[in-house]
Amino acid sequence: MTTVPQTRAIATPARDSLRTPLLFLGMGVLLVLTGFLMGANYALLVVNMGLVSAIMALGVNLQWGFAGLFNIGVMGFLALGGLAAVLIAMPPVTEAWAAGGLRILLGLLLGAATVVLLVLLRMRMAPSRRRMAVMIAVGIAGFVLFRRVIDPGIVAVEAVTPAATGYLGGLGLPVLLAWPAGGLLAAGAAWLIGKTALGLRSDYLAIATLGIAEIILAVLKNEDWLARGVKNVIGIPRPVPREIDLQRSPDFVEQAARFGLNAVDASKIWVNLLYMLLILAVLGLVLLLSQLALKSPWGRMVRAIRDNEVAAEAMGKDVTARHLQIFVLGSAVIGIAGAIMVTLDGQLTPGSYQPLRYTFLIWVMVIVGGSGNNWGAILGGLLIWWLWVIVAPLGQLVFGSLATMMPEGSFMAQRLADAGEQMRLLTMGVVLLLVLRFSPRGLIPER
Amino acid sequence: MISEDPLRDDRGNRDLSITRPRDAIPMDPIVPTATQPATSVVNAFLVGEAMVGGYGRGPSILNGCTIAAEKGQIAVIVGPNGAGKSTAMKAIFGMLDLRQGSVRLNGEDITRLSPQDRVAKGMAFVPQTRNIFPSLTVQENLEMGAFLRKDDISRTMEQVYELFPILREKRRQPAGELSGGQRQQVAVGRALMTQPSVLMLDEPTAGVSPIVMDELFDRIIEIARTGITILMVEQNARQALEIADKGYVLVQGANAFSGTGKDLLADPQVRKSFLGG
Amino acid sequence: MDLLNALVVFLNFVFVPAVSYGAQLALGALGVTLIYGILRFSNFAHGDTMAFGTAITILCTFGLQALGITFGPLPTALLALPVGIVATALLLLGTDRVVYRFYRERKAAPVILVIVSMGVMFVMNGIVRFIIGVGDVTFADGARFLVSARGFQEWSGLEEGLAIRSSQAITVVTAAIAVALLFWFLNHTRTGKSMRAFSDNEDLALLSGINPERVVAITWIIVAALATTAGVLYGLDKSFKAFTYFQLLLPIFAAAIVGGLGNPLGAIAGGFVIAFSEVMLTYAWRKVVLYALPEGWAPDGLLQLMSTEYKFAVSFAILIIVLLFRPTGLFRGQSV
User: Fold this and answer.
1) Which of B39, B68, C226, C322 is 20 to 30 A from C184 via CA?
2) B3 within a domain of the structure (yes/no)
């Protein structure tokens, strides 16, 4: 791999500096057009989720684009962020806490203590059969104790009005606090994972992170005491007013009428605009911080490591520590996005997390936007999300009309009627392959 | 800091693999050899004449050197580190593009042929490293050497076994499990399976003990006696020149001295500069 | 204390399911490991390749059934299997021609090829969902049991029954045949040997006149056969669902890596290691222990280490342990 020092950046022609604004302008035109065709509210929804996707893409870009870390466990970190929204914002379920909350906490502490003890043993004792035996014994004893303590607690908690709660609830704090908390939760998980798996080769790391994501999802789906599992947590408090309250407010109705809008439409648009401001604030902050970080000596070191790990290591750079830092940071950004997403939806539905949608789609955003370029990641997030949303109804339109030409209720007609939805995956794959082939650096390449 | 080709930019992942570009990346088309001096025609079985070339777009490593070997003779290239010895051999085998000069085999110009095509023309090459199939058995290594041949290969295999009797003993063992010297024998044996007219060896004695080295040189003499032309790059210059019919001393990609092995060994300047007195 | 009954329970709920699941994983892992050995990248589209082959086989099975053609006591899907294999082979060869070859010629970095395979994964996933939908499809027919629980009880006079479903027996037999054919091909034919040589040392293989494009094409064809067979066997044993096949990627990769990527023998061993660990760690051992221990000694509780939903955790944990302590896998994989 030949590296070309900074000369390239200096010699950037004017055409290239216009490229980014022009692409964003084009993206804006697409979104406005969508607004005209499908309604302003629909367009705002697309924009909001697009902006959240952009935050996710920034997180992945931090890891892949700048440090070359191949993390395909995005879904898991998103879900952890979502979990934070439940744990922070939902009111605590006092009966459940009384029934077995402390028992569960104690159990978790015991579990954690066992793991810590095992790590300590491994570090302190000399490698020998005896260490192996001690570690196995401690592990088994710890596991049995953990289950003995936690199992009755779980049963008791899950028995508390299972149709409505059956879980411990959250802290009842403002939901906006969940956003940083989501980042922290994801960062904590990333630290644990990074400690074990970051030394692995890239494709092993990929498989490992893929596995982690599945495990996190399995926990969310099955540990009902935590966040109700597949029974979902709904009605998560919102950081913005509810539409129905706005419609009841005479002030708001009057204001809306001044813009020539009826109260229902106006309330939806207003709420979405408020969300957009909040998300834009987060996006702006994340973008600013990552740009600053990457232009700092630390950022240059990270990229130097990416470009030539061996040389960086030889120069005395602590590659593993840098990788761990950036893995944790990137995952935190993804976790924040996960919390925002759940706040937007107002519910946590573990069953809806699928790797194709929440891991690989984010990757398409980063690659298409331009890995290694934050603006590219944002553009990719907006563009690919827009495409993802728009392809289904378009496909429906095309295939639906094809289906009407087939005999009613026939196999082909059924397939064609469903095809619109499947077009999404196909399109994303084709887009990714086309970009990789004809523009491997993405729409806005790294400078 | 971006690498030239986005597809090869593996973002720091050191996944070594064979798809990773290693040596010659054919990028430049061969420059017509108009500037070549017309006078220096050498007539030998294998000639690499006035060769100029380097890797990719990099600087030239070969600066007009000429290497020739007669049929059934042993030609040896020696010289200090970085003189372009291995590069010269790779150029003759077509593993990097020549900017000037030509390569001829038995009077035929093969400058533009790919290494594979040169194998078909009767050239065989034993690389310095990674020259065997480690998980294949010794016998399978030999079979793969003869992959292009459609005729019966059992006689050639028998000849290789006669040349290197230890290989017959170990023929069912994976080649990767053999000792360094035995691996070199497998490598040479594999190359011989194509029944080549030219055998090219890149530092065949690198990393083997002096006893094994002598043994290997004996075998190489034996191979040359069967009429196969041998071209060899060697670090152990003195020992190699002793068995050489023709020796080339390269310095900075150009011929510094050439002559018979004995002449070079006797030349005081060569002795002083390259053979340590 | 009744060791015989304990053994039967163990065989019935642990051994037989794990063996058939292990065989399915082994076939899947063989495909992954062959692609890694020859084309040098981890193919994330492998789960969807399996899904595609199975989907075609299912459609063909339904067609045969509609025509009234069945395979006697064996599942009709076995008759349709060759069609699925051929279709998958054509798809893979087409994909190679349109997608992968470009990167091969440009000598792209392996990690780029992995990302490319993600794109292929999306496309194949879309195609599979298009041709067969997202729902659960059951397509097993023929005899349901080779050994039924009641038949076994009557024959042995034991309290516990041992049931071997025909799909399990067919899985093991078919997998054994497939593996035997593969190893015969790799070890005893000129083409197979040239594939191993190519996997060992690509440059030297080129010098020896081995045609890389031919090796790659044959690899894809073999992978198509293995993936389709694995997918159909898994579908017969359980059921077909596009998403489940995508998720199989994790245990399959775990199997291939645990065995040593690029090493076919390792892939088979890895498949069984993963399958047995998964089944044994998620099985509730209460019944076995009740029989095996003297009366009153058995502890209460299900004696289940973790619930079946956490089977991914098993694949993952084994993967991490092996990678941390023996990075090249149990059998030496390619030394990359």
Assistant:
1) C322
2) no
Ramachandran sector of residue C304 (left: φ over 0; alpha: ψ -120 to 50; beta: rest): beta
CB A396 within 8 A of CB A80: no
Chain B neighbors (3+ CB pairs < 8 Å)? A, C
Structurally, chain C folds into a number of domains equal to 1
Q: Residue B113's domain spans which residues?
A: 41-120+229-276
CATH number (domain holding residue B239): 3.40.50.300
Count CB-CB contacts under 10 A for residue B222.
12
Q: By residue range, what is the domain housing residue C196?
A: 22-249
Phi, psi of C207 (to 5 degrees): -60, -30
Confidence at residue B97, expressed as pLDDT on a 0 to 100 scale? 80
For the purposes of burial, counting CB atoms within 10 Å of the CB of B115, is it exposed (0-12), middle (13-18) or buried (19 or more)?
middle
Q: Is residue C86 part of a domain?
A: yes
Residue C13 lies in a domain: no
B151 touches chain A (CB under 8 A): no
User: In a 10 Å sphere around its CB, with 0-12 CB exposed, 13-18 middle and 19+ buried, how is residue B227 labelled?
Assistant: exposed
Alpha carbons A295 and A297: distance in angstroms, whole number: 7
Domain membership of residue B245 (yes or no) is yes
With b for 16 or more beta-carbon neighbours within 10 A and e for fewer, the C73-85 pattern comes to eebbbbbbbebbb
A56/A50 Cα distance (integer angstroms): 10
Interface check A203 vs C, CB under 8 A: yes
Per-residue pLDDT band at A51 (split at 50, 70, 90) = very high
Q: Which residues, listed in sequence order, are joined to residue C304 by a DSSP beta bridge?
A: C284
Q: Give the highest mean pLDDT range of A403-407, C69-73, C325-329.
A: C69-73
A365 reaches C (C-beta below 8 A): no
| In contact, C41 and C35? CB cutoff 8 Å | yes
ipTM of the shown complex: 0.91
CA-based torsion, C57, C62, C64, C69: positive or negative: positive
Q: Across the interface, do A67 and B15 touch by the CB < 8 Å criterion?
A: no
Contacts of A203 in chain B (CB under 8 A): 15
pLDDT, one tens digit per residue, over C269-301 is 999 999 999 999 988 888 888 888 877 776 777
In three-state secondary structure terms, B236 is coil
Which residue in A has a C-alpha nearest to residue B9's C-alpha?
A1
